[in-house]
Amino acid sequence: MIERKRQSAIERKPAILKAFFEVIEKEGFENASVAKVAMKAGVHPSLVIHYFGTKEKMVLELVDEVLATYADLFRRLPKDGPPLERLERLLQLVWSREWHEAASFAVVFSFLALSQRDDEVRKRVRNLYNNYRRYLQVQVCFFAEEGVIRIDDVEAAVEALISLSEGSHYFCRFHIDNGTFDSHCQHMIVAAKRILGVQSPDI
Amino acid sequence: MIERKRQSAIERKPAILKAFFEVIEKEGFENASVAKVAMKAGVHPSLVIHYFGTKEKMVLELVDEVLATYADLFRRLPKDGPPLERLERLLQLVWSREWHEAASFAVVFSFLALSQRDDEVRKRVRNLYNNYRRYLQVQVCFFAEEGVIRIDDVEAAVEALISLSEGSHYFCRFHIDNGTFDSHCQHMIVAAKRILGVQSPDI
DNA sequence: TAATTAATTGAACATTCATTTAATAGCGTA
DNA sequence: TACGCTATTAAATGAATGTTCAATTAATTA
Predict the structure, then answer these.
(1) What are the average pLDDT values for consecutive 10-residue runs of chain A, which has 203 residues?
(2) Contact list, B33 vs chain A (CB under 8 Å)
């Protein structure tokens, strides 16, 4: 006892959330107890409750944090520049190591499972993807108008693009070794270009 | 007490697994306790342990059962018939209501999260998809040889096809209302055909 | 320095957890 | 009818669960 490391709520709360994340990643959502999180954070279980009220609220705060990292990724998608170059940057970013490593599969999948039961979580996931979807719609429209792609249905192309990228992230977790990641990304970019009907010399 | 409903292990075990599945779906993997499963199955918790040994083993048995339903789906994929018709049947099956409703998102996602930690589960998931992958490779090769599709790289096309279909199932859970499911499937089939470079009059 | 506020812990809470062991009840066979 | 097997439960286990409340310690302000 004694030797209390005193910190402000502003630094302590994120530290506890980080510990929560790590415990989930290592032991699974179903085994991530308040006690373990407190232990990992080097703190008394009471303090966890003191800051978050209940475990449930803590889960929701972590969900928000994780979804925010996705929102950050989306925010970095290109919004200007010449059409063909912009398209190329878009695809390169979606299928980059950075995006692939952005989130923990174990944590995210637990939250997606949770979203099927918890309306609050579901709403936030939905909202996140709606933003992504709207962004792609605008871009795909632009590309079509500029004549760098040829599609019949913008909505359909966007649905396919999102499905391909989400499915690809999923696919990688089970089928891609370290050595094959880059070539897989190339495959996906080629597929995306086919879906979009890219009109370009290099395809 | 009294009024024991006596059943054989052959009927009781599946009944308990079914109860387990339902509890997970309703309350989440993290809240599916042995006691709740027993309650749902109308049975004493001891009996659950008696049949499965430990909760962990019960989880593994349920994983096997769920994966088996996927294997059943894969088994129904077309393996003969004229190339173009076979391709059409393949796509229609992958993007059918039946496939979409085949499994519980909440349960499956919990298991996928689990697979990141549990090597046994991981191995089985991987194995399942390897079968799917091999099947598609054979078919895509065949379609290419028969000239109904035009692709540069079989491996790449298969990766894209799987990614698109898995991502699509995921996509549907958050973005598709009941009314838009059919049109979404149509969009995906069009995208798949573009990926495969289908050489046909109706595209 | 004294008073106030916020961070942190200690100890206890009632529940629930998965599991064990021993007892009981129903069925098939001899 | 008696026996043996298996299904099933009863009861109890210690550990772990999330949470409460009061006490204590450290920093901030007066």
Answers:
(1) 70 97 98 98 97 98 97 96 97 96 93 96 95 97 97 97 96 86 97 93 51
(2) none
Label residues A164-202 b or e (16+ Cβ within 10 Å = b).
Answer: bbbbbbbbbbbbbeeeeeeebbebbbbbbbbbbbbeeee
- Cβ of A4 near strand C (under 7 Å)? The reply is yes
The HSE-up count of residue A45 (CA atoms within 13 Å, CB side) is 7
- Find, in chain B, the residue whose alpha carbon is nearest to that of A172: B163
The domain spanning residue B166 has which CATH number? 1.10.357.10
Is the Cβ atom of A15 within 7 Å of strand C at any atom?
no
Q: Are residues B98 and B128 in the same domain?
A: yes
Domain count across chain A: 2
CA of A48 to C1' of D29 (A): 27
* ∠ CA B125-A74-A77, rounded to 5°: 115
Contact check, Cβ <8 Å, B159/A197? no
| Location of structure tokens 């996140």 | A128
Say if B170 falls within a structural domain: yes
Nucleotides on chain D that have an atom closer than 7 A to a protein CB are 6-12, 16-22, 25-27
